[in-house]
Design a protein that fits this description.
Blueprint (H helix, E strand, L loop, with lengths): L11 E5 L6 H13 L32 H7 L6 E4 L8 H12 L8 E5 L7 H12 L5 E7 L7 H4 L3 E4 L5 H12 L3 H10 L4 H7 L2 H19 L5 H16 L2 H20 L13 H8 L4 H20 L4 H17 L5
Parallel strand pairs: 1-4, 1-5, 2-3, 3-4
The structure holds zinc ion.
Length: 342
């Protein structure tokens, strides 16, 4: 990640990257740095409460953390650090108009005012245009920070007026270490959560929780049982998959969690013959190895790709029961068609 090198404070910044990798925390850190009145502004990475600068490679904005300005910003009580996020489905024009009014006045007390716009990609077109007006005539002593997933989600005219900083997904090892050091998660669990999180600290934290782990354990045990089902017990498997579909239809949050778990488990099954040491679900290595050796390559390449399509339907559907049933039947078929003699 590149650092902000210029001594001049930029009028507009754009932080892009996936959710949960520290873009917002870095924006707050930036606001703290440009306003810190501490005489010896020092890095506080190691004494951090854990909410700021979780990444090793995030821009290091030095702050003292103890001056009145730092304290106000860190606790979210500074009148000149403005936070804007979608009201309902989007950031609307009224919000940007109100921001414009505020920015037309002098800052209350800040040396440098900062407006942070979260999920900036979720903005109505009129709001985008109103924002463009602000960026065209940037208010003095003010930085506007847009936080978005990709710059292509924003109007090019907006992007061209911002200094962009791209936040790469964090490496699994770094996430696992952070979970272990800061959240007290055991290393084995930390590695599993990190590997499933796609580079996001926030997602990894969620996946290291007891509830998530319980749901994942339950689902993967069910999967193993389905995989071990003898072909002549096909009826039992069907009944089991129907019950699974019903349970998951009634619990949307659990459904989201277990779909991620199943995906990682299918990935592991496919990976096992080539790189067994690289599987995610290390605690289930024995079961995965046994099952993987009974599945032929054809099933991996054709059967499991089809699962992706059904998974999208499940996620998009308000009542996913039918898609879920199809999903599990297909999965059962794929697993048992190729042996699964358990
Ligand atoms: Zn300070």
């Amino acid at each position: 990640m590149k650092r902000i090198r210029s001594r001049k404070i930029p009028h507009a910044l754009l932080f892009t990257g996936i959710d949960g990798i520290g873009r917002y925390q870095t924006a707050v850190r930036f606001a703290t740095t440009v306003n810190c009145t501490g005489r010896t502004a020092i890095r506080i990475d190691s004494s951090d409460p854990g909410t700021l600068n979780e990444r090793d490679d995030a821009p290091h904005f030095p702050v003292c953390g103890t001056c009145p300005s730092c304290k106000k910003i860190i606790t979210g009580n500074h009148p000149d650090i403005l936070h804007i996020k979608p009201a309902g489905s989007a950031i609307k024009i009224d919000q940007i108009r109100s921001l414009r009014n505020t920015l037309s006045l002098k800052p209350y007390e800040a040396r440098h005012r900062v407006a942070i716009l979260e999920r900036a990609q979720e903005m109505t077109i009129p709001a985008f245009n109103a924002l463009l007006k602000i960026l065209e005539e940037p208010p003095e002593r003010t930085t506007i920070i847009l936080i978005a997933n990709k710059s292509s989600d924003l109007l090019p005219t907006i992007v061209s007026r911002c200094q962009q900083i791209r936040f790469a997904p964090a490496p699994d090892d770094q996430i696992a270490r952070s979970l272990a050091d800061r959240q007290g998660v055991g290393m084995k669990r930390a590695h599993i959560a990190a590997a499933m999180a796609g580079g996001s600290f926030d997602v990894a934290k969620k996946m290291a929780s007891n509830q998530w782990q319980r749901q994942r354990d339950w689902m993967l045990n069910e999967m193993t049982l389905i995989g071990q089902g003898k072909p002549k017990n096909g009826k039992v498997s069907i009944r089991r998959t129907m019950a699974l579909a019903e349970t998951l239809t009634n619990d949307r949050q659990m459904l989201d969690n277990v779909l991620v778990a199943i995906k990682s488990w299918l990935r592991d099954l496919s990976l096992w013959p080539f790189m067994p040491e690289d599987i995610i679900n290390l605690d289930m290595a024995t079961q995965i190895g046994k099952l993987a050796s009974a599945i032929d390559a054809d099933t991996f390449f054709t059967g499991f790709t089809a699962m992706d399509t059904i998974e999208k339907q499940i996620r998009a559907n308000a009542n996913p029961r039918l898609a879920l049933e199809t999903y599990f039947i297909k999965l059962t078929h794929n697993l048992s068609a190729s042996g699964g003699s358990g």
